[in-house]
Amino acid sequence: MRCKTHTACLPASSLLLLSFFSLLFFRRGSTQKRYVLQALNAKKHVLANDPTSVTLSEFMEELECAKKNGKFIQTTAMFVHQYRVQRFMNHVLQDRKFGRITDVESSIQLNYNDVEKVGVKLPLGPEHGCIRVLGRFCVLVSTMFFNRVGSYAKSARVKSWKYGMHGEIIAADCIVYFTNDRQLNFYVAYIQSGTRQSIELNATSRYATMNDFVIEHPDGLSTYRVHDRKAHLDGNIQALDSDSFDVGMGLGQERVLWRTFVRLGYQLDNNGGWDGNEAIADCKELTEVALQMKKILIALMESLENEGKEVPVQGL
Q1: What angle do CA 191, 196, 200 make, to 5 degrees?
Q2: DSSP letter at 229?
Q3: pLDDT tens across 3-45, in order?
Q4: N or C, which terminus of the chain has less Cβ within 10 Å?
Q5: How much is the pLDDT for 7?
Q6: Are 231 and 239 spatial neighbours (Cβ–Cβ below 8 Å)?
Q7: Structural domain of residue 65, as residue ranges?
Q8: What is the arithmetic mean of pLDDT over 77-101?
Q9: Are 235 and 122 in the same domain?
Q10: How far is CA 10 from CA 4, 107, 215, 220, in A?
Q11: What is the pLDDT of residue 172?
Q12: Cβ neighbour number for residue 117 with a 10 Å cutoff
């Protein structure tokens, strides 16, 4: 079997929903298009595990089929710790003192023993390069932030990279340029030492940092901090304000993923399809971010093939 409907991670109360929802998992080298279109035409919402297993044209065809049938298609990468990232995002965007967001700095340095936590297995092959596997999470979070403030990716470039023993990219330093003079800088790598993950959101007045934004910390918490960029006068002294927050994961990642997917599917069902805006705003936002993420990853891989040349992001 090239793909299957997966039920092992679902709570028992959710199994009845499988007549309306389809979870498709694909092996390396398989094509998801035929199975996705079959499920969508059967009036099922589809959650696929691999956002890079189809070309852009195939992905667009799947989206059009989903909209025609009034159904939702998404990949598991779009839901990785989404609750905590959303809390982080909402806090920053609602902070009136934060100022104009200018850039995002992100880094994922993954120990080889943790690769299964991001959906791949050792030994790594050429298709498991860190831009494709790890970079998608950096691109995802930054795109969600920038979309909220009206900026969209326009070009991308791989500044430096390193190959492993099997032709896979094991380290890469990348930049993505967005409209309105914003940018994402990210560094991703497979390493022998401990896994490290961080994201920093910079603005004119303050900056915010968050750790463990992809792989959950063992204690189930993710700490984010917001700092003043410059000191301000507080009475007779110069002061820098700093806030720190611990955001708990709550339910396990797999259950949160499933519940979020079901909630968004029901949004579309209750709305009667893709017409309208407010009732299905979450579905539309996540779909737009997924499409941008795919286009950015394609541009980065083209930059790599062209020795680090800056490449336009398709369809801006």
Answers
A1: 130
A2: S
A3: 443 333 334 333 334 455 655 555 444 567 788 888 899 998 8
A4: N
A5: 34
A6: yes
A7: 3-78+254-312
A8: 75
A9: yes
A10: 14, 31, 20, 20
A11: 98
A12: 15
